[in-house]
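Pasting as-is:
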Amino acid sequence: MEIGKYVVIEGHDGTGKSTQVGLIRQKLLEYSIDSIEFHEPAGTPTADAIRNVIKNGSLERDAMTNLLLFSAARHEIWNKRALPALKMGKWVVAARNYYSTLAYQGYGEGLDLDLIEMITRQATDEKYMNPDIAIILDVNEKSRVKRIDGRGQLENPDTFESKDDVFQFKVRDGYVDLARSRNIPIVSANNAAEDVAEEIWTDHIRPYIRN
């Protein structure tokens, strides 16, 4: 059986990653391609518990602790959910992978990028490190903030969404740099979700599907 494809939709908070993951899976179904999805750092009971810690901005942590938490969640999700699905020929469509940690903990929090890569590789494998298809979504800052504000008040402040503008611009610049250095396409998410999905499908996913 042919191994499935690993697809990653990346980008800053508020760029519409989860929406695009769902729309991609709907389109795959039209071609009778079975798929699963997850939204890092959630995806297994253990990863979900780790996510609760990660998302809780009331818990003070440094960048290294964040890296280790994300890496533990990734180890769980990749080995218990993603790899078994890929081996069954299913496509794995994920919102975020370690590119997020490079952007947030590397560019945003100042952690060494090589260290992030080394620990991530130990927690996962080469397939995880090199997705078949990766897309970075980008949206103008005004729209991004509006989308986040539309989610409503959280019980605890979100660890990263609640950080200041300086941090947010570092993260966005990080994604741009990652796209340039790793040849990852950037897709504007300023348009309607369906239009963004059509661009992603036509330009970046359809070529991987056999007729």
